[in-house]
Amino acid sequence: MNKKINHSKPTDSEIILGILNNSSSILKHLYLAYFPMILQLVINNNGDEDDAKDIYQEAIIVLHGKIKSGDFELSSKLKTFIYSVCRRLWLKKLHQKSRFSGDIKDYEDYIPVEQEIEHHQEKDKQFAMMHTALKDLGEPCKTIIEDFYIHNRSMQEICEKFGYTNADNAKTQKYKCLQRLKKLFFNQKNEK
Questions:
Q1: 13 or 101: which carries more pLDDT confidence?
Q2: Mean pLDDT score of the chain
Q3: C-alpha Rg value of the chain to the nearest Å
Q4: What is the tens place of the pLDDT at every residue in 35-45?
Q5: What b/e string do you get for 11-31 counting C-beta neighbours within 10 Å, with b at 16 or more?
Q6: From CA 25, how far away is CA 15, in angstroms rounded?
Q7: Quick one: average pLDDT of 140-154?
Q8: What is the C-alpha separation between 83 and 26, in angstroms, rounded?
Q9: Res. 120 pLDDT band, cuts 50 70 90
Q10: Most buried of 44, 75, 142, 190 (most Cβ within 10 A)?
Q11: Are the C-beta atoms of residues 120 and 75 closer than 8 Å to each other?
Q12: CA–CA gap between residue 55 and residue 53 (Å, rounded)
C-alpha cells in the first residue's frame, strides 16, 4: 500500500531528514521554495538568472555536504542558512569577477540577510492577500483590474469589451473597482 504524499510544506527538520534519505521530492521542494529569493538577490546585485542558478546549486551542494557529514546543526531557519550561503558565494563570485574592488568584507553590509528575508516574506504575504482580495472582488471589477494592470489593455479596449459609452466611463468604473479592491485588501490586513 502506498503512503499518501504530504502536500503541506515540509518543516526544516523534515527537509534535513529528506536530504539524509536522498529524497528527490525534498530537493525539488528546496528548489521551488527558495530559488526565487536567491534569484532576486543575485539580479539585484549585478547578476543574472544563470548566475543565480549556479550560486543556488553550489549552496544546495554545501547544504547537502554539511548534512551528510553528520555534524550539521541548524542554528537558524533553513531559509536563512541557504540565503546566507548564497549571499557569501555570490559576494565571492563578484569579487573574483572584479566587479567590485576592495575586500569582500567591505560589501557585506549591502546585502543584509535577515532584513532581506523578512522583506521577501512580507511581499509574499501581501501578494497572497492581494490575490485573495482580487478573487473576492467579483465581476466585472476583477476582469477590469486584470485587463488594465496585468494584461496592459487600454481604457478604450476595456470600454469596448464591457460596452461602456466611452473610455471615461470605463475609467470611472476602474477607479470604483480599485477602491473596492483596496477596501478588501486592507480589511484582510486589519484582520491579521
A1: 13
A2: 79
A3: 23
A4: 888 888 888 88
A5: eeeebbebbeeeeeebeebbe
A6: 10
A7: 85
A8: 17
A9: low
A10: 142
A11: no
A12: 6
* pLDDT value of residue 117: 67
pTM assigned to the model: 0.49
Look up residue 108 and give its three cell numbers. 557585506
Do 79 and 13 meet the contact criterion of CB atoms below 8 Å apart?
no
Amino acid 14 reads E
Q: What angle do CA 119, 123, 117 make, to 5 degrees?
A: 30
Report d(CA 50, CA 67) in Å as an integer.
26
Our CA angle for 162, 167, 168, nearest 5°, is 120
Per the rule left: phi > 0, alpha: psi between -120 and 50, beta: everything else, 10 is beta
**Angstrom distance (rounded) from CA 185 to CA 131:** 9
pLDDT for 25: 86
- Rounded Cα distance between 106 and 21, Å, is 39
Tell me how far CA of residue 138 lies from CA of 52, 91, 146, 156, 175, in angstroms. Answer: 39, 47, 12, 21, 15
Cβ–Cβ < 8 Å for 72, 26: no
